[in-house]
Write a structure and sequence with these properties.
This protein is α/β, with parallel strands linked by helices and 249 residues long. It contains 10 helices and 8 strands. An 8-stranded mixed β-sheet has the order 3-2-1-4-5-6-7-8, with helices on both faces.
Length: 249
Amino acid sequence: MLTDNQLLRYSRQIMLPDIDIAGQETLQQAKVLIVGLGGLGSPVAMYLAAAGVGELILVDDDSVELSNLQRQVIHHSSSIGAAKVDSAAQRIESINPDVSVHCVNHRLESDELLGWLKKVDLLVDCSDNFATRFMLNRCCVAENTPLVSGAAIRMEGQLLTVDPRVANSPCYQCLYPSAGDDNLSCSESGGLAPLVGGIGSMQALEAIKVLTGVGETLVGRLMIFDAKNMQWQTLKLKVDANCTVCARR
């Protein structure tokens, strides 16, 4: 049940026929796990909090550094040296105190992640390496948990939604059968601030759509953004018959 203050806070969303009060109450009851509170995780966490997602579980084992502040907009100069999850939690509190936040200040292994996935409705992957992305994908498929995955490097970004609840939904490993270069990161290759902000915002949008059932999600499609030439490209994906993660489901 939404309070009078919440009805006012979320009034612009509630005005949308696809959301309405029922959709807002669904968001209020939702629990979302966010892995990575960097360039992608910053807008994801802030927009999901502002939109009224009831509980956010923040996962990151890193601390805020000066070089983060160019693109990781959830953190402040005064946050340098603090754990990213704690810095993010403080910002979320200032955005929307109605949101419950749980901080996990260490890297999740498969067993612990599987335990969390039993408690949440959705995972948003804002990590920065293939090993973590593969592990998150495997666990989400195993637990039938929707996954919104984003990536951004240099001036390129991509977005993919995996929903094991949907028949013939390809997973992340269908897209990348083997690991790529783990050294391909912003610290090694650079990254443009508005690019990660844009991809992260799209991840938050996808998360809201998955949670509320509004519209068509990116299940079975990969969106690629070329910021340099300002072009979006959408590729259709199919389940890889030889995928070791999802082909036998």
